[in-house]
């Protein structure tokens, strides 16, 4: 028998805050500028849901460490500008968080600095306070399970009673590796088929999440 869900672990980018569309646009620009032209689908496949270190490693392998460092510097500068100017929460997120009657936290591939900025701009930060976990706190990023296991242990819950809300193929893979259920949000950039798999409910409208959790 499946245990009831007792903790909901949210990814941040693309699940709570709509940063992924901004990041996609900037990475397309940088690829064209720095010698690795990619279309949007390839960038989603390679970069979405991965840590900054994992993305930089891919770029360095392709273009060299110096170009990778230039890419990273320009990316951070442009993303910060775009976040401050145009970032919004994912539609329906505030309603979901306000109506959720379970403990919840964040476990993201982003840094704490990045999350302070994005959650601050969108006004979501007070809902999470000290319940924010970053891939910088663990040895391996997604798709390894380390971050989700770290978040669950710190919050005091066993993996089998945790549910993860993710929008990337690497995120749902990490949830499965951690022995957790996952809800794959296909209302963003990732095709639904990339999220589908064992112990995963794929959905496209964020406001539907509480009912899906209650039914699991």
Automatic annotation (TrEMBL):
What GO molecular function terms would the record report? Answer: hydrolase activity
Q: Tell me the SUPFAM superfamilies matching this sequence.
A: HAD-like (SSF56784)
This protein's UniProt keywords: Hydrolase, Magnesium, Metal-binding
Name the Pfam families on file: Hydrolase
Q: Which domain of life is it from?
A: Bacteria
Cofactor(s) listed: Mg(2+)
Q: What is this protein called?
A: HAD family hydrolase
Identify the species of origin. Streptomyces bohaiensis
Taxonomic placement = Bacteria, Bacillati, Actinomycetota, Actinomycetes, Kitasatosporales
